[in-house]
Amino acid sequence: MERTYLMVKPDGVERGLIGEIVGRFERKGLKLVGAKLMKVSLERAERHYAEHKGKDFYERLLQFITSGPVFAMVWEGDQAVGLTRAMIGKTNALEAAPGTIRSDFAIHTNFNLIHGSDSPENADREIRIFFDEEELLSYDKAIQVWI
Ligand code: RTP
Ligand code: MG
């Protein structure tokens, strides 16, 4: 089973889209194994976005992600990383396919509502940045046989 790190960004929390976004992954059939509302410290933000250090949008990105509460989540399922990236849509809402979260609710690249890990390796790395092991639950779902 694959795990991925998803995070409703401050714009999504402020706009009241946590439920809408969580509902999409629930209905898809993925399993929620950890979640919390939290404020991202600058230290965590720098670790999370290390790959973007030096890019022109880096400082703005750090400022944004630390500006208000985020809803941090870990979801589990077969191909969870790829599936959730597809459901989130391209970074720029203009290029995001209809029906994706960013196409349906976002306008601006800087305020694109949600983060999703882009590889299983990055998912493991990001999960460790935001969650302690005991915050992640293993449990069986009776309906799993259908998914
Ligand atoms: P994310 O990491 O948030 O899931 O988004 P992503 O993979 O689609 O995009 P990524 O390239 O990892 O960029 C991280 C976030 O930085 C902002 N960004 N701004 N050219 C720009 O102004 C620019 N490029 C990226 C976006 O908010 C993006 O989600
Ligand atoms: Mg990314």
Automatic annotation (TrEMBL):
| Pfam families reported for this sequence | NDK (PF00334)
**Reaction(s) this enzyme catalyzes, per UniProt:** a ribonucleoside 5'-diphosphate + ATP = a ribonucleoside 5'-triphosphate + ADP; a 2'-deoxyribonucleoside 5'-diphosphate + ATP = a 2'-deoxyribonucleoside 5'-triphosphate + ADP
Family matches, as PROSITE patterns: NDPK (PS00469), NDPK_LIKE (PS51374)
Q: Could you tell me where this protein is found in the cell? A: Cytoplasm
Q: Which residues bind ATP?
A: 9, 57, 85, 91, 102, 112
One GO MF term: nucleoside diphosphate kinase activity
Q: Does the entry feature the keyword Phosphoprotein, yes or no?
A: yes
CDD domains given in the database record = NDPk_I (cd04413)
Necessary cofactors: Mg(2+)
EC supergroup of this enzyme: transferase
| InterPro entries in the cross-refs | NDK-like_dom (IPR034907), NDK-like_dom_sf (IPR036850), Nucleoside_diP_kinase (IPR001564), Nucleoside_diP_kinase_AS (IPR023005)
Magnesium as a keyword of this entry, yes or no, is yes
Q: What's the chief localization of this chain?
A: cytoplasm
Provide the alphabetized UniProt keywords: ATP-binding, Cytoplasm, Kinase, Magnesium, Metal-binding, Nucleotide metabolism, Nucleotide-binding, Phosphoprotein, Transferase
Nucleoside diphosphate kinase-like domain: from which residue to which, for each copy?
1-138
* Self-association and partners: Homotetramer.
Q: What is the recorded function of this protein according to its Swiss-Prot or TrEMBL entry?
A: Major role in the synthesis of nucleoside triphosphates other than ATP. The ATP gamma phosphate is transferred to the NDP beta phosphate via a ping-pong mechanism, using a phosphorylated active-site intermediate.
Q: Which family does it belong to?
A: Belongs to the NDK family.
Write down what this protein is called: Nucleoside diphosphate kinase
Source organism (scientific name): Cohnella suwonensis
Phylogenetic lineage? Bacteria, Bacillati, Bacillota, Bacilli, Bacillales
Gene behind this protein: ndk
